[in-house]
Amino acid sequence: MEEIPESHPRYESLLTRHRIEDGVERGITSPQGLIAQGRGEAFDYLLGEETIPSADEAARAAAAQLLLADHPVVSVNGNVAALVPGEVVELADATGADIEVNLFNRTEERMEAIADHLREHGAEDVKGLTADARIPGLDHERAKVDADGIYDADVVVVPLEDGDRAEALAAMGKTEVVIDLNPMSRSAQAAAVPIVDNIIRAVPNMTAHARELADASREELEAIVKEFDPDAARAAAERAVREGELA
Ligand code: PTJ
After folding, report:
1. By residue range, what is the domain housing residue 74?
2. Does a structural domain hold residue 230?
3. Rounded to two decimals, what is the model's pTM?
4. Ligand 1 pocket, residues with Cβ under 6 angstroms
5. Burial bucket for residue 24 (CB in 10 Å: 0-12, 13-18, 19+)
6. Mutate to test the pocket of ligand 1, among 19, 140, 161, 187 (most ligand atoms within 8 A of CB)
7. Domain count for the chain
8. Which residue of 45, 48, 69, 79 has the lowest C-beta tally within 10 Å?
């Protein structure tokens, strides 16, 4: 692939495409991940390819939620692993979260390739390979989770999936942080904290907020979570998308 000059007006978008393409070549990302990325890009285009204020507030509330959690877990699929492997490890470090691989198109080869990729980016413990528990009410591969991982978690970060797992996790009583550029996706609708932003921007932003809140008291963190209104955040994002211009 040709080197992309940073001055290119679509630098970030081209870099993102390159990472996804590379993920497919390495057997990390499923070919369907290319289509999912295209869907996300269309929304990002309308959002102006920037973190809108409601998404920044959501990232702060998500950081507070993760810092308050007894057992936070960040769920990783093939797109997430290709786009933000090191950034996910940093978020996990900043919040004390576990990292668990959970795939829709699950194969042992992809599970291993993603776990290895995350370890190469500094992850010490990668969950998801044991798969000794099931999320009730799901009859596809995303139901397979680790008993001491997502199954046991109280707060789960669910990025880039428009599906029924978010609803099933909510039914288990878990608090969900969803990262999805589509504010109308089923996952974003089920989230206690929907972050409508590109994962490329959202994960480092959550980590920055978590570091900034590292010394905050429980009361301060609880106040941030309480003040956050998920319906207002979804509505603000939907407005931004609907009013967005095709620049
Ligand atoms: O790796 P696997 O096998 O688990 O499969 C992963 C994919 C992404 C292929 C699978 O979960 C899938 O098909 O997802 P969907 O149903 O296309 O949903 C992906 C959601 O993520 C859509 O709502 C997109 O708008 C959104 N999205 C895509 N790229 C980004 C994004 N949101 C934030 N940042 C992105 N870069």
Report:
1. 53-243
2. yes
3. 0.96
4. 30, 32-33, 36-37, 39-40, 43, 77-79, 83, 103-105, 160-163, 179-182, 185, 198-199
5. middle
6. 161
7. 1
8. 48
